[in-house]
Design a protein that fits this description.
The protein has 7 helices and 14 strands. It is α/β, with parallel strands linked by helices. The protein has one domain: Ribonuclease Z/Hydroxyacylglutathione hydrolase-like (Metallo-beta-lactamase, Chain A, 4-Layer Sandwich). It has a 7-stranded mixed sheet with strand order 6-5-4-3-2-1-14. Strands 7-8-9-10-11-12-13 form a 7-stranded mixed sheet, covered by helices on one side. The longest helix has 12 residues. The two termini are about 20 Å apart.
Protein backbone atom coordinates (compact mmCIF):
# COMPACT_ATOMS: atom_id res chain seq x y z
CA UNK A 1 0.00 0.00 0.00
CA UNK A 2 1.40 3.38 -0.99
CA UNK A 3 0.57 6.88 0.22
CA UNK A 4 1.18 9.93 -1.98
CA UNK A 5 0.82 13.41 -0.49
CA UNK A 6 -1.16 15.70 -2.79
CA UNK A 7 -1.83 18.51 -0.34
CA UNK A 8 -0.08 19.19 2.97
CA UNK A 9 -1.24 22.68 3.88
CA UNK A 10 -3.77 23.77 6.49
CA UNK A 11 -6.63 26.16 5.68
CA UNK A 12 -4.93 27.92 2.78
CA UNK A 13 -2.18 26.84 0.44
CA UNK A 14 1.21 28.53 0.38
CA UNK A 15 3.19 28.81 -2.86
CA UNK A 16 3.66 25.39 -4.47
CA UNK A 17 1.31 23.70 -2.00
CA UNK A 18 -2.27 22.48 -1.90
CA UNK A 19 -4.72 21.92 0.92
CA UNK A 20 -5.67 18.52 2.34
CA UNK A 21 -5.46 15.60 -0.06
CA UNK A 22 -3.80 12.17 0.16
CA UNK A 23 -3.82 9.37 -2.40
CA UNK A 24 -3.68 5.75 -1.24
CA UNK A 25 -2.98 2.96 -3.74
CA UNK A 26 -2.79 -0.80 -3.53
CA UNK A 27 -2.65 -3.00 -6.61
CA UNK A 28 -5.18 -1.56 -9.04
CA UNK A 29 -7.13 0.35 -6.38
CA UNK A 30 -6.76 4.07 -5.72
CA UNK A 31 -8.70 6.12 -3.16
CA UNK A 32 -8.46 9.79 -2.32
CA UNK A 33 -8.58 10.96 1.31
CA UNK A 34 -9.87 14.55 1.22
CA UNK A 35 -10.00 16.79 -1.83
CA UNK A 36 -9.07 20.32 -0.80
CA UNK A 37 -8.23 23.25 -3.04
CA UNK A 38 -5.36 22.46 -5.41
CA UNK A 39 -5.55 18.70 -4.94
CA UNK A 40 -7.09 17.76 -8.29
CA UNK A 41 -4.24 19.27 -10.32
CA UNK A 42 -1.70 17.41 -8.20
CA UNK A 43 -3.67 14.18 -8.48
CA UNK A 44 -3.67 14.50 -12.27
CA UNK A 45 0.12 14.72 -12.17
CA UNK A 46 0.43 11.21 -10.74
CA UNK A 47 -2.83 9.41 -11.66
CA UNK A 48 -5.73 9.76 -14.07
CA UNK A 49 -8.55 10.89 -11.75
CA UNK A 50 -10.93 8.60 -13.64
CA UNK A 51 -9.04 5.67 -12.09
CA UNK A 52 -10.18 6.55 -8.59
CA UNK A 53 -12.30 3.90 -6.89
CA UNK A 54 -13.63 6.32 -4.25
CA UNK A 55 -13.15 9.66 -2.52
CA UNK A 56 -13.47 10.08 1.25
CA UNK A 57 -14.05 13.51 2.79
CA UNK A 58 -13.16 13.63 6.47
CA UNK A 59 -15.26 16.65 7.47
CA UNK A 60 -17.03 19.72 6.21
CA UNK A 61 -14.33 22.41 6.25
CA UNK A 62 -13.61 23.87 2.80
CA UNK A 63 -9.89 23.06 2.71
CA UNK A 64 -10.88 19.38 2.74
CA UNK A 65 -13.49 19.31 -0.03
CA UNK A 66 -13.43 22.35 -2.36
CA UNK A 67 -11.88 20.53 -5.32
CA UNK A 68 -14.86 18.18 -5.44
CA UNK A 69 -16.52 20.88 -7.53
CA UNK A 70 -13.66 20.70 -10.01
CA UNK A 71 -13.75 16.90 -9.92
CA UNK A 72 -17.44 17.02 -10.77
CA UNK A 73 -16.63 19.00 -13.91
CA UNK A 74 -14.02 16.43 -14.91
CA UNK A 75 -16.50 13.60 -14.40
CA UNK A 76 -19.51 15.17 -16.14
CA UNK A 77 -18.35 17.59 -18.83
CA UNK A 78 -15.57 15.80 -20.73
CA UNK A 79 -16.01 15.95 -24.53
CA UNK A 80 -16.23 12.16 -24.70
CA UNK A 81 -19.24 12.22 -22.40
CA UNK A 82 -19.95 11.75 -18.70
CA UNK A 83 -17.94 9.24 -16.71
CA UNK A 84 -19.73 6.74 -14.46
CA UNK A 85 -20.63 8.13 -11.02
CA UNK A 86 -17.79 8.03 -8.51
CA UNK A 87 -18.32 6.72 -4.97
CA UNK A 88 -18.08 9.66 -2.56
CA UNK A 89 -18.07 9.06 1.20
CA UNK A 90 -18.59 12.12 3.37
CA UNK A 91 -20.10 13.26 6.68
CA UNK A 92 -23.86 13.17 7.22
CA UNK A 93 -25.66 16.05 5.51
CA UNK A 94 -22.58 17.40 3.78
CA UNK A 95 -23.49 16.33 0.25
CA UNK A 96 -26.69 18.36 0.37
CA UNK A 97 -24.86 21.35 1.83
CA UNK A 98 -22.44 21.27 -1.10
CA UNK A 99 -25.32 21.18 -3.59
CA UNK A 100 -26.88 24.28 -1.99
CA UNK A 101 -24.16 26.46 -3.54
CA UNK A 102 -25.22 25.43 -7.05
CA UNK A 103 -28.06 26.30 -9.37
CA UNK A 104 -30.87 23.80 -9.75
CA UNK A 105 -29.23 22.38 -12.86
CA UNK A 106 -25.80 22.41 -11.24
CA UNK A 107 -27.11 20.58 -8.18
CA UNK A 108 -28.60 17.90 -10.41
CA UNK A 109 -25.34 17.53 -12.33
CA UNK A 110 -23.41 17.32 -9.07
CA UNK A 111 -25.71 14.56 -7.82
CA UNK A 112 -25.24 12.69 -11.11
CA UNK A 113 -21.44 12.84 -10.85
CA UNK A 114 -21.23 10.99 -7.53
CA UNK A 115 -22.78 8.11 -5.61
CA UNK A 116 -22.94 9.73 -2.19
CA UNK A 117 -22.58 7.66 0.99
CA UNK A 118 -22.63 9.02 4.54
CA UNK A 119 -19.74 8.10 6.81
CA UNK A 120 -20.66 6.15 9.94
CA UNK A 121 -18.32 5.71 12.88
CA UNK A 122 -16.77 2.24 12.78
CA UNK A 123 -18.50 1.12 9.56
CA UNK A 124 -15.95 -0.54 7.26
CA UNK A 125 -16.13 0.48 3.60
CA UNK A 126 -14.70 -1.79 0.91
CA UNK A 127 -13.09 -0.01 -2.05
CA UNK A 128 -11.45 -2.52 -4.36
CA UNK A 129 -8.40 -3.99 -2.62
CA UNK A 130 -8.68 -1.55 0.30
CA UNK A 131 -10.91 -1.26 3.35
CA UNK A 132 -11.53 2.17 4.88
CA UNK A 133 -12.91 2.58 8.39
CA UNK A 134 -14.02 6.02 9.60
CA UNK A 135 -13.55 6.86 13.27
CA UNK A 136 -15.19 9.97 14.72
CA UNK A 137 -12.73 12.45 16.23
CA UNK A 138 -12.83 15.73 18.12
CA UNK A 139 -13.13 18.51 15.54
CA UNK A 140 -16.67 19.78 15.73
CA UNK A 141 -19.70 17.97 14.35
CA UNK A 142 -19.10 14.85 12.26
CA UNK A 143 -15.34 14.82 11.74
CA UNK A 144 -13.70 11.50 10.98
CA UNK A 145 -10.25 10.00 11.03
CA UNK A 146 -9.83 7.38 8.30
CA UNK A 147 -8.12 4.02 8.83
CA UNK A 148 -7.10 2.30 5.59
CA UNK A 149 -5.90 -1.28 5.33
CA UNK A 150 -4.87 -3.64 2.57
CA UNK A 151 -5.18 -6.62 4.91
CA UNK A 152 -1.51 -6.54 5.84
CA UNK A 153 -0.77 -2.98 6.94
CA UNK A 154 -2.80 -0.06 8.27
CA UNK A 155 -2.60 3.66 7.60
CA UNK A 156 -4.41 6.04 9.94
CA UNK A 157 -5.13 9.54 8.65
CA UNK A 158 -6.25 11.62 11.61
CA UNK A 159 -7.73 14.36 9.44
CA UNK A 160 -8.36 17.39 11.67
CA UNK A 161 -8.63 16.61 15.37
CA UNK A 162 -7.75 17.72 18.84
CA UNK A 163 -5.56 15.31 20.81
CA UNK A 164 -7.35 12.98 23.19
CA UNK A 165 -9.09 9.62 23.51
CA UNK A 166 -10.89 9.77 20.15
CA UNK A 167 -7.67 10.34 18.23
CA UNK A 168 -5.93 7.63 20.26
CA UNK A 169 -8.63 5.08 19.45
CA UNK A 170 -8.46 5.94 15.76
CA UNK A 171 -4.66 5.65 15.60
CA UNK A 172 -4.19 2.57 17.80
CA UNK A 173 -1.70 0.08 16.39
CA UNK A 174 -1.38 1.66 12.95
CA UNK A 175 1.72 1.08 10.86
CA UNK A 176 1.82 4.62 9.49
CA UNK A 177 0.18 7.57 11.25
CA UNK A 178 -0.59 10.49 8.96
CA UNK A 179 -1.33 13.12 11.56
CA UNK A 180 -2.37 16.72 11.37
CA UNK A 181 0.00 19.16 13.08
CA UNK A 182 -1.62 22.50 12.37
CA UNK A 183 -0.78 24.58 15.41
CA UNK A 184 2.50 26.23 16.36
CA UNK A 185 3.51 25.01 19.80
CA UNK A 186 2.58 28.25 21.58
CA UNK A 187 -1.03 27.81 20.43
CA UNK A 188 -1.55 24.32 21.85
CA UNK A 189 -5.17 23.98 22.94
CA UNK A 190 -6.31 27.15 21.16
CA UNK A 191 -8.32 25.19 18.60
CA UNK A 192 -9.39 21.60 17.92
CA UNK A 193 -6.08 20.81 16.22
CA UNK A 194 -2.71 19.37 17.24
CA UNK A 195 0.80 20.72 17.48
CA UNK A 196 3.77 18.69 16.22
CA UNK A 197 4.58 17.68 19.79
CA UNK A 198 1.01 16.48 20.34
CA UNK A 199 1.09 14.53 17.08
CA UNK A 200 4.33 12.88 18.20
CA UNK A 201 2.79 12.00 21.55
CA UNK A 202 -0.22 10.51 19.75
CA UNK A 203 2.06 8.32 17.64
CA UNK A 204 3.86 7.12 20.76
CA UNK A 205 0.61 6.40 22.61
CA UNK A 206 -0.84 4.58 19.60
CA UNK A 207 2.23 2.41 19.07
CA UNK A 208 2.50 3.61 15.47
CA UNK A 209 5.30 2.32 13.28
CA UNK A 210 6.08 5.72 11.77
CA UNK A 211 4.69 9.25 11.74
CA UNK A 212 4.08 11.68 8.90
CA UNK A 213 2.98 15.20 9.85
CA UNK A 214 0.55 16.94 7.52
CA UNK A 215 -1.97 19.82 7.50
CA UNK A 216 0.75 22.24 8.55
CA UNK A 217 0.01 25.94 8.83
CA UNK A 218 1.85 27.45 5.84
CA UNK A 219 4.15 29.62 7.96
CA UNK A 220 5.20 26.81 10.34
CA UNK A 221 8.88 25.87 10.50
CA UNK A 222 8.66 22.32 9.17
CA UNK A 223 12.09 21.23 10.31
CA UNK A 224 11.28 22.37 13.82
CA UNK A 225 8.00 20.46 13.58
CA UNK A 226 9.87 17.28 12.66
CA UNK A 227 12.32 17.64 15.53
CA UNK A 228 9.62 18.29 18.12
CA UNK A 229 7.49 15.38 16.95
CA UNK A 230 10.49 13.04 16.89
CA UNK A 231 11.36 13.96 20.47
CA UNK A 232 7.83 13.12 21.63
CA UNK A 233 7.49 9.98 19.50
CA UNK A 234 10.90 8.34 19.52
CA UNK A 235 10.30 6.78 16.11
CA UNK A 236 10.74 7.84 12.47
CA UNK A 237 9.09 11.16 11.59
CA UNK A 238 8.67 13.01 8.31
CA UNK A 239 6.86 16.22 7.45
CA UNK A 240 4.66 15.82 4.39
CA UNK A 241 5.37 17.78 1.25
CA UNK A 242 3.50 17.63 -2.02
CA UNK A 243 4.34 14.49 -4.06
CA UNK A 244 6.20 12.75 -1.22
CA UNK A 245 5.43 9.02 -1.20
CA UNK A 246 5.46 6.47 1.60
CA UNK A 247 5.12 2.70 1.51
CA UNK A 248 2.79 1.53 4.28
CA UNK A 249 4.09 -1.79 5.56
CA UNK A 250 3.88 -3.73 8.84
CA UNK A 251 6.03 -2.49 11.72
CA UNK A 252 8.72 -5.14 11.22
CA UNK A 253 9.68 -3.65 7.85
CA UNK A 254 11.00 -0.20 6.96
CA UNK A 255 7.74 1.78 6.85
CA UNK A 256 8.83 4.80 4.78
CA UNK A 257 9.94 5.25 1.24
CA UNK A 258 10.07 8.95 0.66
CA UNK A 259 10.59 10.26 -2.85
CA UNK A 260 11.00 13.98 -3.40
CA UNK A 261 10.11 15.40 -6.78
Amino acid sequence: MRLTVLGSSASYAAAGQACAGHLVQDGGTAVLLDCGNGVLANLATVLDPLRLAAVFVSHGHPDHFLDLYALQALLRYAPQGPAPPLDLHLPPGHFERMRCLLSERGAAEFAAAFRAHELVDGMRVEAGDLVVEPREVDHGEHAFALRVTDGAATLCYTADTAPGPDAERAAAGCDLLLAEATLPEQYAGAAAHMTATEAGALAQEAGAGALVLTHAWPTNDREEMRALAAEAFGGPVSVAREFDTYDVVPHAEDPTDREER
